[in-house]
Q: What sequence folds into this?
């Protein structure tokens, strides 16, 4: 069936099967490969994108459910060649190891900060509970989100080349 | 994993969805947030021939006070309920339970009506509805009826919804200031309860202690007779026949029911 929606601000109209999952639509029809298929069971969050600005797991959304709505992927964050503040913070704080979870983490973080612009460290950890990092690189991810939010908690992170205080215990 | 093929139609209103259910037959399923249904379809545990989408019907979304009841549209997402100022003040136990479902992304999509219709005995909202003595508004070909929570859950993943009916709203008594407690024992973050207990004033509900969420009536009676929270909680598992699985055997579940009920009665969130 024909579905019309907006992907990263661009209007699209595509003929899709009703069973086509949003993550497969983004990757295979739109050619946007940031959202990864990790667990495929609504657990790991690697497929997280924004739907009308709120974070969702695109492995558990049908493309047809997104009709008429705004989908944002990690590809749609940077504007005019400038990294989104959350992307820049992940880079600055080295909020990744292998990188597989990173697009989902970044999108979940963008969604979190839109709902709670100045989260505490505990709120960041709770807010990212739907995203798994199998490298267990959570400390730097949390540090990156706090840095992006510009909260006092990020200041404990020190500089990129200095010794870092441990965020959390 | 990709679901088996199906047809899709977006309902234009709740009555339209009922008409579609009637004309499309037993193989049609309602789709709201899809966070119980789509995982089952991906695993081929469900393979409906057609999905009727009610997830964007604004008439089914929202929270309002109506007399002494709080009324949630059936397609209200968990996150909306968990963060609603009205729900947090007038039905804090319900708002709290909605905030424990899954994770933030899941709470953005999953809906209260979907969770209740799915009727997982280990889930949060069915237990909360039993604890609060709530009810659901059901629309069918013959009109609307209201079903009390304890008449709604009839078995393991089974409800008294008839074919051709849909939940339009969920009602709970407004209880601002009532003392409540909510306990959920899990092995992993975001998981379903191995056992759960919810208490508000003298009412106690348990999750995953049988095929449906149920009330700990012996413990409630003891409370009514003047027993302490600790004394009453010792009776929490009376009359229950919990299932056994890899997480817990029957005796362990009964132990958890007693411990969690005591903590819930001590009004710990």
A:
């Amino acid at each position: 069936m024909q579905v019309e929606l907006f992907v990263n601000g661009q209007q699209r109209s595509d003929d899709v099967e009703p069973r086509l999952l949003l993550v497969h639509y983004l990757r295979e029809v739109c050619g946007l490969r940031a959202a990864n298929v990790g667990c495929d069971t609504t657990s790991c969050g690697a497929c997280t994108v924004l739907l009308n600005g709120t974070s969702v797991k695109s492995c558990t959304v049908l493309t047809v459910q997104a009709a008429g709505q705004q989908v944002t992927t990690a590809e749609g964050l940077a504007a005019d060649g400038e990294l989104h503040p959350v992307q820049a913070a992940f880079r600055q704080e080295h909020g990744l190891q292998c990188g597989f979870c990173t697009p989902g983490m970044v999108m979940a973080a963008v969604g979190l900060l839109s709902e709670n612009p100045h989260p505490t460290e505990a709120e960041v950890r709770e807010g990212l509970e739907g995203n798994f990092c199998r490298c267990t690189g959570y400390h730097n991810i949390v540090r990156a989100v706090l840095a992006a939010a510009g909260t006092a908690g990020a200041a404990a992170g020190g500089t990129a080349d200095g010794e870092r205080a441990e965020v959390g215990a | 994993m990709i679901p088996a093929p199906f047809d899709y139609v977006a309902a234009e209103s709740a009555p339209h969805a009922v008409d579609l259910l009637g004309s499309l037959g037993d193989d049609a399923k309602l789709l709201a947030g899809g966070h119980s249904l789509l995982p089952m379809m991906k695993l081929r545990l469900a393979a409906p021939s057609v999905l009727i989408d009610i997830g964007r019907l604004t008439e089914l979304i929202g929270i309002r006070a109506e007399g002494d009841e709080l009324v949630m549209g059936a397609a209200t997402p968990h996150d909306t309920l968990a963060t609603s100022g009205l729900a947090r003040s007038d039905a804090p136990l319900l708002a709290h339970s909605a905030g424990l479902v899954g994770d933030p992304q899941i709470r953005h999509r999953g809906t209260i009506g979907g969770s209740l219709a799915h009727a997982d005995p280990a889930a949060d909202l069915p237990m909360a509805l039993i604890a609060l003595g709530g009810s659901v508004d059901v629309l069918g070909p013959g009109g609307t009826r209201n079903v009390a929570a304890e008449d709604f859950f009839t078995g393991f993943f089974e409800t008294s919804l008839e074919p051709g009916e849909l939940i339009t709203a969920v009602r709970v008594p407004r209880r601002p200031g009532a003392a409540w407690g909510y306990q959920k024992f899990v092995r992993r973050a975001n998981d379903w309860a191995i056992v759960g207990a919810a208490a508000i004033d003298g009412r106690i509900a348990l999750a995953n202690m049988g095929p449906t969420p149920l009330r700990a009536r012996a413990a409630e009676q003891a409370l009514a007779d003047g027993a302490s929270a600790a004394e009453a909680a010792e009776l929490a598992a009376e009359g229950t026949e919990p299932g056994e699985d890899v997480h817990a055997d029957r005796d362990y579940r009964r132990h958890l029911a007693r411990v969690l009920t005591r903590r819930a009665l001590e009004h710990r969130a």
Observations:
- Strands of chain A lie at 2-7, 10-15, 48-51, 54-57, 70-72.
